[in-house]
Each structure stands twice: as C-alpha cells, then as structure tokens.
C-alpha cells in the first residue's frame, strides 16, 4: 500500500489529549479558547464540520474552514482539524483546495477528520433526498479515495459513480508530504477498511445507539471490540495495526469523566488499557451540550497533561 503521512507524534506510549471546540461563538469570543487549548498543552484542537447541528439550528453556528483558518492565525504549535468532514455537503475537488490552503496557513499543522456523515440537516439542506446506508457507504469510499488522490497528485482526474474530477488542480500541494494526515471515523467493515487503507488515525465515538453516555469501563469494552475489528482490517490491507493511531472522542456517547482530576485520569487510563492512543474531550460551555465548569475542566485536564511548561 502507498505510504501514509504522519504527524509530529509517532504512535508511542502514553495518550495524546485533544479538544473539540464547537464553532458556536463569534470569533472575538472564540479566539481565547483556541489560544488557551494550545497553552494548556493539548496535542490537537478540532471543530465540528456541519451546516448546522442539533439544537443550534436557529442559533449561531460558524463554518469550519474559516474557523480553522482563524485558529491557525492565533496559535503556533497545536495541530488543527475538522472532526469530521463528510460527503454530506462537500465535493472532493473544492474540499481538497481548502485543505491545501489550511495546511499552508497553519504551517503544516492540519489533520483532516473524515467520516461518512449521517442523516439530518446536513444531508437534506442542499435539497437532496437522504441517501440509503449503502449509497452513503459507497459515497464515503469514493470521497476518501478521490480526496487522497487530489492531495497527492496536483493534476488528477478521476471518474467514479458519485464523484469525478477532470484535471483537478491542487498546486502547490500540501506542506505535509505526501499529503495531510487523515483521521478516518468508522465503525462498520467498509469504513474500517478505509481507515486501514488511508488513515493515519482511526476515530470512534463509541456506540452511538446507546440511550445515554456510557461510563469508562463500559465504553472501553465497546472500543476494545472496535479496535479488534480495526486490527483485522489492517491485516487485510497489509498494514501493521500498530502503525495507526486510535482516537476516542468523549462526549457524544461516552462520558468525559471531567467531574474531577482523579475521575478524568481514570477515564483516560481505561481507554489506554484497551489500546487507545488519543482521547478527545469537549471544551466547556456555559450550557448544554458539553456544559462544564471551566476551573474543574482545567484541573481535570491538567492532571492528565501535567503542569504547563514555562515555555
């Protein structure tokens, strides 16, 4: 298989923490959170990529690409990216151009979270009928394959069932070579194969069908089974399973464990023990979703990250 890109941290011991910052505030209010995430020592800062999302349908919700561009301008070391972009309202050709630009603006700090997307406003806002599960999976495969091709080859053509490119141009290409790293969200067999084939990182939120967020022991048990399926997909693709990072996103269906420093350390350890390399939490908000006390959040995260260095 073709060589995969890697970010600044090889798959190694210890868990890397990242944070998801919702794009729900005007930039003058949001910018301090992105700067603080870097200062606290998070390895990556993500934002969601939706046209709108859940309870924010009639409230402020800003676009991913401008948000990450602005975040790149107020930070210097933390990695940045969408978690996750999807084919719901994107086409690989303009998307690849935006990724090349983001990688340039950030100085090579971009990681691209990609997923199949789901039902809801993103899937119907452009006037389309919702795709069947089979079509969604097929579109996801083509979307990832073509985006990969466009980022590796600055003059690429492609003819698929759902997506095509006629001499797509992405000059000058990515700062990171051969392209920006992909973090592929997947739980099913077809998605796992895509993660094994194209991903520097695999992403899971656990079991989205659970009626309420699961605690760490129950969540880790589910993630362990998913990692087993990922490793099988890696073997089928001729890839060393230890070469792919495993990112668990806490919050949507897995409890974040941010009630206290001890609870958060225990939560992270639970996932680390089953093979997780990366854990993402959500930046605290004043109301739901992800409502949390800022001081408690910082104390819990600092307990895992360690004290901030003077540098």
Description:
With 311 residues, the protein is α/β, with parallel strands linked by helices. It has a single domain (16-305), classed as Luciferase-like domain (TIM Barrel). 38% of the residues lie in helices and 14% in strands. It has an eight-stranded parallel β-sheet, with helices on one face. The chain has a two-stranded antiparallel ribbon with strand order 5-6. Helix 2 (64-74) links the parallel strand 2 (44-47) and strand 3. The chain is globular. The mean pLDDT is 93.
Brief characterization of the structure:
The protein has 311 residues and is an alpha/beta fold. The chain is 38% helix and 14% strand. The chain has one domain: TIM Barrel.
Could you state the oligomeric state of the chains shown? single chain
Q: Pick out the low-confidence regions.
A: none
Shape: globular
Q: What is the name of the CATH class?
A: Alpha Beta
Query: Taking Cα atoms only, what radius of gyration do you get, to the nearest Å?
Result: 18 Å
Helix content: 25-40%
